[in-house]
Each structure stands twice: as C-alpha cells, then as structure tokens.
Protein 1
Amino acid sequence: MTEISWFGALCDDDYEFLGVDNLALRSSWEHCRDIVLKADANGFDNILLPSGYELGIDSVAFAAAVAPQVRDMRLLLAVRMGEMWLPQLARQLATIDRMLDGRLTINIISSDLPGQALESAPRYRRTLEYMHTLRSLLNGDPVKIDGEFVQLDIEPPRARTVSGSCPPFYFGGFSEAAKETAAEAADVFLTWPDTVASVAETIDDMRVRADRHGRSLRYGLRSHVIVRETEALARAAADRLVSQLDDRTGETIRQRSLDTASVGVSRQSELREGADTEGYAEPQLWTGIGRARSGAGAAIVGDPDQVLAKLQQYIDVGVEAFILSGYPHLEECDLFAQSVLPQLDHGPLNI
C-alpha cells in the first residue's frame, strides 16, 4: 500500500500561469484551507504543509487552525529545525496531534534560518540535535543535553500525542550531511523528482546508510503532476502553464527560497539541462516547472494510465509515499483524484 499525499501551497506556490502572480492563488488562510479540505474530501492520505518565512503563512499556526476541520486525512507539518524553542515546539506538535486524533506527521526542514546563514556541516549538526531532542520530548522522555546547539535539562511536556510517542519524521536532502542525518534520525526519506534509475540509486544508497546505523527507512517522492484525458492534452496543459514565463521572472522566483544553493536544487537544474527540447528528462517526466521553482522542479505528465504507470515504476524501485501537487492546486487535486487515485492501492504509511 502506498501513501498518496497532496500539497498545501502555504508558501505562495500556486499559479494558473507559472510566474504570473494571481492574488486569488496567493497563500492565505482561506485559499490554503480550501486546498486542504479539498484533498481530504478527495480521499488523499496526507498533505504537506510547507514552511517558509518570506514565502507565505506560518505552517504551525495554520495546522492548528485547520486540524479540527480535517475529517480523515493526516497532516504533514513542516517545521524548520532551530526556528522554534524545542520545549514549546513539542507542546505545539503534541497539541495539534490531539486535534487530529493522532494523525500528525512531521516534515523536518534543515535550511538556513531567516536572517542568518550557516555552513552545511554545522547546520546539519544542529538539525540532528534538534531531531533527537524533539523525538525524546514527544516520546515523553526527560531530556538532559549540553550540545553544540541544544542545552536543555527538562522533563517532557504534559501535552502528549495520542499514541504517546513521536509522530514520524519525514526528511529530505541530498548532501552527504543531509543523507547521514536522515539515515540516523528520520523515518521517511523524501527525494525530489528524478529519473526512475536515479531514484532507485538514491534509495539503494540510503538503505546502506541506514543499515550502518542499525535502522531502516521508508521512501517518498515529492513531485508535481499534470494529468488529462489524453497525453496530448496533458502536454498542452504543461506548455500552457509556462506560456507566460520569462527566464528573469523564473530566476527571481527560484532565488526567493532559503535552499537555492543546495545539492538537491543543483540536481534539479541538472535534470532540466539534460532534458530534450520539450523539457522531458524521460517519458512522462517534464522539467519545465523547475524554470520557476527552486525545489521540486519536475512533473509527471500524461493521461491517467501513463501517470499511473509512471508512479508504479517508482513504486517498483522502493518508493512507498508520494507528495504530489499541480497548478492550480485545487483543480489539479480534483483531476488526479478523479482519474488516478481510485486506481491506486493507497493508505497512510504505518510507521
């Protein structure tokens, strides 16, 4: 069974035409709430609520507001390690998990903090200390640590998750430090869209790394999707999406993120540069979205059977969870839910 998630677009990442600002699609409480509730009604298993400083609204506050309205779906709440005081963050997450009747999952973010920069190695050391400490607090364990970035001698908060233990940590990153951090402390390793062979290599590599720590990981893929009745219509929709995008605007959008210099972003650029003249890195994998996005920069494009087959190729090499999105998010959520989701054996990851 595969977990199929949607994307909450809290980070001003919703367009009719990529790169063309649309006030109605900017991240706001109303618009992002509508995306979440649409995904819940459409039967998705989870939804990513991304975290950004310049790029939109606060993920933790939003999750607390929307949690009582979500009927069945999980929330994958993104939190940036180092941005919030850990005892308070643990209380917030435990409280939101209670609101969701135990359906909270956590996306660990390890980028720079707003207003400051830190080299990759110490940044991931900070992330690792935060992950271990946060897990202990959410497991109900006292913490006594005098680390490089965390100094705490504290009992766990009285606020506890429904299960009494820490929700699963989803984590992505492609540098050596990121992969080692994931191998040691994450539950689900997320990769961005890439060729099936490259995704397989990444999963094989992470299995070896996790095994060295005496652990095992689950694997997820974050990708956009464009599905239409026919392949020709899907490819036309992809072309329309970037039809008003100029390279200068695209570069400005890419530079707004805090992770523009990361190894993962570099790989997305390589994927785009190696694509054919229409932007396809391999059948059904279109890289045009990366022209105006610093993170996941490719989409699975095709008719329902082609999209399903592409997802199955990734499943066959070890992917057990997908975080999908499309533009505009409300419309593409409906299209995927109507034409592809019913054909998938899907459900929440059991971790």
Note: Residues 3-228+298-343 form a domain with the TIM Barrel fold (CATH 3.20.20.30).
Protein 2
Amino acid sequence: MKKTNILKKLRSSGLRPTKQRVEIAKFLFDREKTFHFTVESLNKLLTKKTTNKFALATIYNTVHAFKTAGHLSEVDVRGKKKTTYFDTNVKNHHHFYDTETSELIDINEDEVVFEKIPKAPNGKKIKNLEVFINLKN
C-alpha cells in the first residue's frame, strides 16, 4: 500500500499521521489477505515484527479510530469469555471461529445461502445477516 494511501486512511480517521500510527496502519492494511486481530494480539505482533515501541493506548485508540472511520469492522466472539476481534475486511461476509486456536476465518458471503429469514420487528429493517460457525477438532 502506498504511503499516500496510509496517510489518507489516518487523516480520514481523524488521526495525525505520527510515526507510530503510520507503522500500525502499514501493518494492518499493507497485506494481501484479510487480517483478524484483537488489540492485545496486535500489540504482541507489533512488538515482535517492528523495531518501534507502541503504547497499548496508542494501538487501542488507532484501532478504534479506524473502526469508527469504516476501515475496520468489529467482530464479537462469544466463547468461554467475550472477545472483540477486528477485521480488515469491511465487506459483508461470514466467519468460522476455531474455538481451540482462537482463529477467525472468513467465509465469502456467496458461500452461504439463506432460503428463509424471519421478518424484522415492526419499525426495524434488517441491516445485514452474518453467519458465525464455531469449529473444534
């Protein structure tokens, strides 16, 4: 991803393009495949893969600003405890969740077919449908 695109993402998220934020944005968006992460797992990966030090608050604020700007989607996973993942794929799609490895895996939207869905309650519209499939060995 070009540096100008990274700077646009930061600015459209209301963030000043500091060295740390640019590094976080590159790590998140300069990749070919979708990336799923928690703030904590991102912190560990950044510590391992980069030479910069990042305050957890900087990572948290950057991720949430990207989510608010529509650059990331939030996926709540309910297992033994609720965990919030973030997804670089913001298009409508579904997920597998491996309960043993805590891995979130995309399922293309066209791979799931709905034959019948319930009618929305009065005064409400269905925004989207998401299938979440838990996996185990």
Note: The longest strand covers residues 73-78.
Protein 3
Amino acid sequence: MVRVLAMIAALFWPVSAFAQQTVAPDALKLTVTLEETQAVPFQNEMVLLTIHGIYRRHITLEKLEQPDLKGFNWMQLGEDHWFESVVDGKTVKNMRRRMALFPEAPGKLEIGPFIHHLTLLDEDSKWFEHDIRSEPLTLEVKPAPETGDWWFPVRRLEITDRWSNAPDQLGKGEGVLRIITVSALGASPDMIPPMPELKSPSALVFAHPEKRLVDLSPDGPVSIAFWRWTIKPRKPPSAILEPIAFSYFDTVNRKRQRAVISAQKVAISPAEMPAPLSIEARAEPSELQVWWIVAALIAGSAIGVFATGAQGRLFSFQAWGRRARLALLKHRIRISAQRRDLSRLRRACHALNRMLGEKPERCQLLAELDHLLFGRNPDNADLARFSRTFLASL
C-alpha cells in the first residue's frame, strides 16, 4: 500500500512542479502599504495598514500569514474583503485586509513580509501550492512627548453626558444616575484615560465599575468607555458636581487639546421641597427633652461633687459634654431610623463614628448603609435593624 501511494505521488509531482513553473510573474500580486500621514507618527498613534492582493488565477484554497509585528499593538479591522475588478479588460479577483497598528516604541520599526499561501488549479484541473510574498516595510516612529499627563493620541473624540432623569428636578430622597460616554476613533480601549473621580462638596457620589468596548470600522477602531455614578444631594435642596477634565492629542490637527465636562447642579424640584418651618418648630421636642435631661444630670453631678469635696478632684465639664453629645447622636440615630430620614441617619452615624474613632466593623456597617441608600429599593431598607446593629457595635 505504501509503495502504491509513493508511486501515485511520484506520478503527480512532475505535473505539480511544472504547473508551478507556469505561473506568470504578473498573475499573482500582493502589496502592503502604509497610510500616508502628514507627519511622523508618535508612539501609540494609530497607523493604518492595507494588504491588497490581485489574482488572475483561479484559487481553490487560501490562507494569509502575517508577520510577527514585533513592536506593535495591532487590530484587524473586520474580515477580509473579496471582490472583483476589471484590469486591462479582464476580470480579476481582489482581496483587501485593513489593519490598525499602534507602535509601542520609537525608532525605525520593521514590518516583515505577508505571505499568501494559495492552492491553484493548472490547465489540467490539478491542484498545486503556490506562495506569494509582499515586500517588507519600515516605519519611523517618534517618542511620545513628555506631558506629565496621560498620553492619549486620537483622531476624533466625542463625549456625551447623559442622566437617568433631569438632575435639577429630583424628588425628595431620590438620586440620579450620570453616564459619561467617551468615544475615540483611532485608539484601543486601554488608551482611554482611567475613569476620573467625580467630586462634590455637597453630594453623595457612588461610582460604578466602568465599561469599555470597541467597534471596528474601515477608518480604525472606535473605542468607547462608559463612566457611571449615582448621585444624591447630601444637603438638600441642591449640590454642585465639580467639572471633569483630561488631555488628549489631536492627531489630525497635530496639537494637544483639553476636554472639559462642565460643572453640574443636582437639585430637588421646588415642588418637592417642604414648607418653611416656624422658629418654634425647627428644634424637635424629643431632642430638647434629651438636652434637658443631660443638662440636669450634669448639674446634679456637679453639685454632688462639689458638695462632697471629692478629695480635690475637679469636675470635668469636657467629659460631660462628650457624654451629652454621644447621647444626642444615639438618640438621633434611633429617631431617624424610625422616621426613615435617610440623610439625617447617615450624618448621625458618620458623626458618631468619627467621635469614637473609626473602627473597621463600623466602617463596614456604614458602607452597607450607603448600599441601602443608593440601592434600587432604598424604601425597603430595614433601617430599624441597621440602627440596632450599629448602636450595638459601639
């Protein structure tokens, strides 16, 4: 059996070899070209590469082998495009592949030859293998400029600022979801700057994990980053969010630009605001009762200490003031939980935590409280259970 197969291979080998020799030099052509640019590209700046094959022979099988592309990060911009065209009055087949290259180092970088492995048919309808190669290329790359900031070269940048609902028309106790979308043509997803910190002196800001994706186009990859925050005014009726800014390099106009997302006001709708309270109603009677009780205890203890002499020990009004403040904050936590006053409950818990010294277990409970306040169903949060657990941890 082995001898038979060897004899068959020997019979077909001369035909195959002869067919390979009959391929005309202009019958198959593979070229690789770099996009012409107005300036030498910087590190990480996108350079477009086009591989174009023209074939005047019938192809049964094909596989395009690309070089190692050492020193480049790269993306293939979609699938290979096969089409027909007319050259010198004859119909020929074409293959085109587009790639985006991102040079990772400065200097002269080499792009080796692409090899197209083809299986062709000869005049006797016999298959034979034939390879064509492109010429190697060299690309000059300049080092990225020293900016002291995030290096972000991009051909086109678009930024949108969207909100789940009108940020200045919130209902009482409501929060709002802010989504900033950064869309960059000619950049890979990792080139977009990290998600910034959204700052506000008067709002509670909960950052969500960012999301990134990429869409491929003939002009290069379009990378998109989604930055998301849930925001709630800390002290109603309004809060100010500080602006967000980052730098980028415009590779079309060859200059550095600065993208600025302006400051934004988050506010409760005037229709949701409660009617003004009278001077007499601004202090809760329950808190006044607590203060009267504490004041009476301080006075009684002071009289007792001074009356008995206490062997020269001085009465510490500072210690009693601390105890009074502690008792008042505990009372506020209980009352706020009963009345479901979320913002006041959070302020009292944080004030008490700072007063007693921040402990890991209390910080964990406060983090759980933030999840309750900014969750999907804050109205269903068991605040009574939380207040009991928090006070028990003191």
Note: The first strand starts at residue 28 and ends at 34.
Protein 4
Amino acid sequence: MFQKILIANRGEIALRVLRAAKELGIPTVVVHSTADADAMHVRLADESVCIGPPPSRDSYLNIHQIVAACEITGADAVHPGYGFLSENAKFADILAAHNITFIGPTGDHIRVMGDKIEAKRTAKRLGIPVVPGSDGAVSDEIEAKRIAAEIGYPVIIKASAGGGGRGMKVARNEADLQMALATARSEAGAAFGDDAVYIEKYLEKPRHIEIQVMGDGHGQGIHLGERDCSLQRRHQKVWEEALSPALNAEERKRIGDVCANAVAELGYSGAGTIEFLYEDGGFYFIEMNTRLQVEHPVTEAITGIDLVHEQIRVASGAGLSVTQDEVRFDGHAIECRINAEDPRTFAPSPGTISHFHTPGGLGIRVDSGVYSGYRIPPYYDSLIGKLIVHGRNRVECMMRLRRALDEFVVDGIQTTLPLFRDLVGNADIANGNYDIHWLEKYLAKEQ
C-alpha cells in the first residue's frame, strides 16, 4: 500500500478521497489555492500545500506545482478526483516519470478514450454497441451530407475532443447541416483547440445510461451495474439514480457483461464509466470516462462497495477486492447535485453560507465540503454538495428523498434545492418516465 497520498483536487471530492485514505490508514496531503485555505479538506488533511492563486490554471491545473508538492511531502501516489487533471494523460505520464503512482488508468488509456473518434473505434473493436455514424472526423460538407443521407436524419455533429455539450449541434435535414457543421467546428476549436468533428445518428428520446466498471490492469474486469443520468440541463447531469427504472435484470446483465469484458480485454486499470444512450431496448456508446464520476455514491449505496478504496487497491497492485459473482444490487439510490445557483436561471450564487444543516436518518448520505460560515469562492464549479438517498426500492427511496430535501437547509446563498423539491413531487419523475430532454422541457414550461 502507499506511504502517502496527495489529493490533487478540492471541495467534496477531495474530502471524499481523504476519508477513504484515512480508513485505509494512509496519510494524506492536500493541495489548495489561496482561495481554499479555509476549506474543510485542508483542515482535515495530515498535510497541506498551497500551490498558487485562485485561478485553476495557476493552481489545480499547475502540474509542476503538484509534482513539486509530492516531492516536498514525500507523497508516492496522487488521486486526481474528477475534473481538473483527472483525465489528463500528460499528467499521468509525468507522474510516472517521477516514480509517483497516478491513481487511475494509464496515460495511453486516457488518451484513447479522451479522443471521441478513437474511443468509438476502440469501443467497436471491443464489442461495445455504438451509434451509427462516421468512422472518423468529417473532412468537409460533401462527406457530411453523404454520411447523413446514409444513416438518416436527424443527425448530431460532435467535437472529437469535446465534452459538456460544447461543439454539439443537431441537423434535422440537409438544409440545417451546413450551419450545424460550421458552428460545431467553430465551438470545438474555441473550446478544445481542435476543430475536428464527427457525425452520429441523433436519437430523439433516449435515456442516458452509464455502466460503472473496474479493472485491475491485468486482464480482470467487473461491472457494478448502471446509473440512469437522464435528467440533465445543457448536457450536465442534475439527478442520477441506480438502478435505472428503465432496465430489467436481463438487459442489465447483457450490457454489464459487455462492458466488463471490454475493460478486461483493454487491460484497463481502476475505475471507469462507459456511457450510453438507450432507446427502444438498444444501447449506443457515447464515451468512456476514465475516472471516478460525481455520481459514484449511488453505485456504492446499492452495492456496498467503496469505489475509492478499490481505486487505491488497484493502483497499489493489490487488485480488486471482489469478483463479478460477488457483486450484489440492494435496493435503489438517488443522488441530487446541490449547486450554488439560482434554481430557475441557474446563475452562479457565490457568497457566505450563514447556516448549513444536512438531513440525517437511515439511508441518507451527504457528500459536501462546506459548512456554516464558509465562503464559496467564485472561481470554481458551483457544486457544493450531493444528497444521496438509499431505500429498499424506488418508492421508499423517493419517499425518503422527499423528507431529506425538506430537512436540508442552506442559508445565505441561492441553491438548486427548490428544484429538487419540485422534481420529487412530479408524476413523471415518480413513474420514472423521462428522457434526456425531459428536464429542459420542464424548465422551459416553468419560466
């Protein structure tokens, strides 16, 4: 096992990793910007190192400073959390060159799955079902029209290096295609420094289903079921649940086994998530995230398996603690992402939290790094906490969630708590009757 783990992140995920390391008896080091000097993970870590001013590029994205912090403190492993450098292949390579273990996959696997075109090619090779579309980047409008005609409209143009909804445009007919192609390329170039785009069939009412996988890096892989992340706003997940109300046990096993076999054949190491669009019984590969996900707690709730413990075990060479036959699914879990945002306009709401009270009781978990008196800095993501609720079934989970949301108090700033209180009482949500477009349509009607 490791001598000391440096946590290269902030907020609730830094605190989550810190807790896992402490449970395993491993000393921790956290890095922080000057804006996060009073953060909870800084207060609780064994050691802390300030690595720069508030802007992420000068602190949490500063690879040189993080490596220097490892050398100063003697940390022999780095957990990147999610976001920031968690899917940065160069960072993983540099750590390896300094004999520091990156708690995650290899730089090569990050590179393959970070390129959407290469990821799709790899998925097809591994037997993962993919959305019909171009085999690679589209070179010009003529080629785009030919491919679109072959697979049928509507189609979606996506940035090869994209994510978060940037560089994505829908064309419903040939007349739309030229503008969609030009706009997607422009957005992709501005956001990612790479204007390569590809075309896929656009599914009208799909759900977003993702499969949690773990690999030991030596040919063993398992899946831990699916999460339904269909409730989204601008391609950003808002509400996640496991297991999906849309799948049955046969579908779950079928797609889960495909994914587990794929990561085994790939020789993948650590946690990953293979994401799909799901419509009319069909699964269509979107991408693979080569890191821990924000919504990982719902999987932990229904399996009883600590994913961060597993990440650390695998990275240290100890292997997976469970086999596929030992994975069991118990009940239902839902996660609500609580953001410091206006619940209607979603404008950021930084400021000082005057009062912070979290719900409790059986089946309730809150992952958050904030506290009463904490000042939310304006420089980072607006996520301030995650409410995770577990019940014996979805009905009990929803009832428990309603009660937990009523108990949750955050004063001094605006949050998205009112949105979730509305959603938990909605008939479509109660019946599990929603797709990836449902939330935006609901919000548009509420304006």
Note: The radius of gyration is 21 Å.
